Amino acid sequence: MIAIGSDHGGYRLKEEIKKYLDEKNIEYKDLGCFDEERVDYPNIAEEVAKEVQTEKCDKGILICRSGIGMSIVANKFKGIRCALCHDEFTAKYARMHNDSNILAMGADDLTVNDAICILRMWLATEFEGGRHQERINLINEIENKNMK
């Protein structure tokens, strides 16, 4: 199950991503927004991050105009490794080396086709483990020290 959310700037791209997920029979939970009326992106990012953090959803997708604000908010949650990806290369390595559990994208920076290619790569790539798991363990230690 994937939690998906956007602000008003990412709404149209989110709707296109949902069509792709439907075509591929990938279950998702849409946490908003539900139209192009102005909303505050931190609230949407919080909802998606909580769904992933509490393991109600396996992964998350966040979309705003740049992807930056959404990724900042999501990474405030312990256990969340939200990666802002701009292309298939960053999507691949976000999963393969960093075990990213939330994908952030910028709607103003991507075509629908580009966003779907990024998503497809991110979903298809498995975490490599090994030395990368050691680094995830270090990230977890840092979180435990610094996130109350």
Summary of the model, kept short:
The chain is of the alpha/beta class and 148 residues long. The chain is built from six helices and five strands; from the N terminus they run βαβαβαβαβαα. The chain has a single domain (2-146), classed as Ribose 5-phosphate Isomerase B, Chain: A (3-Layer(aba) Sandwich), CATH 3.40.1400.
Explain how this protein is built.
With 148 residues, the chain is an alpha/beta fold. It contains 6 helices and 5 strands. It has a 5-stranded parallel sheet, sandwiched between helices. α1 links the parallel β1 and β2. The two termini are 28 Å apart.
> What portion of the residues fall into strands of 2 or more residues?
5-15%
**Major beta-sheet overview:** 5 strands, parallel
Integer-rounded radius of gyration: 14 Å
Q: Calculate the terminal CA-CA distance, rounded to whole Å.
A: 28 Å
Q: How many E-type strands?
A: 5
Query: Low-confidence segments, ≥5 residues, pLDDT <50?
Result: none
Structural class: alpha/beta
> What's the CATH first level?
Alpha Beta
CATH homologous superfamily annotation: Sugar-phosphate isomerase, RpiB/LacA/LacB
CATH architecture: 3-Layer(aba) Sandwich
CATH fold group: Ribose 5-phosphate Isomerase B, Chain: A
